[in-house]
Known about the structure:
The protein is of the alpha+beta class.
Amino acid sequence: MQTEKALALVVRGLDWSETSRITTLFTREFGKVRALAKGGRRLKSTFDVSFDLLTVCRVVFIRKATEGLDLLTEARMEERFPILRENLSALYAGYYIAELLADGCQDYDPHPTLFDTAIGTLRRLGEKHNNPQSLVSGFELVWLQELGYRPRLDACAECGAPLVTEGLGRVWFSPSSGGAVCPACRPNVSDGRELSQAALMTLRELTAAIEAEGPLNVPQVKLAEIRPILGQTVSFVLGKRPRLLGYVDAR
């Protein structure tokens, strides 16, 4: 059995016994890790963290050769985001990020960029001037790209015909097709949602910003149109509607 060290974000937890806890971690080095923390519920234990959701910690764990749970042996807290508890919308957004990392990522499939984006988004959620829905939208786009579902926005996802911005007519967005769909292909998709030229341009700019590792903020005026599209796409990729999505999009 091999001992590993990692920087981790707690994305899920489950009490296992009176003294132990199963925790799901999204680590920068290894991706999602599910581990048993023996004695993790004791007031006095070898762990100096309580394994609350959205806690960042340095962990040491023993990686099991089988498909069973890994064994967490050390955990030292690095960062918390207590200010999120002062803003319910920001807190729901943080829990939603944890849900996507826990349910949308495979065990031991590392995504350092996604980890860094999650931590950066959680920090920015604590800043009062930031809009949680805007930050969540940026995170969703990175999550989709890292999982291999970057939406096609330069051409029709069905037929490949270029979508020329100048003089562009109506287009639709189809999660099952993987992006924007031209009018000619619209009858072929069952989940198409109409997408304005302004929203299409915003999505293009955001995906370009991912490549340049720039900040991802969806303008307030575009949120009403872009939020349903991203929520529908995330739900398609997961195969279910995320439990926290409704709380994030609540007005």
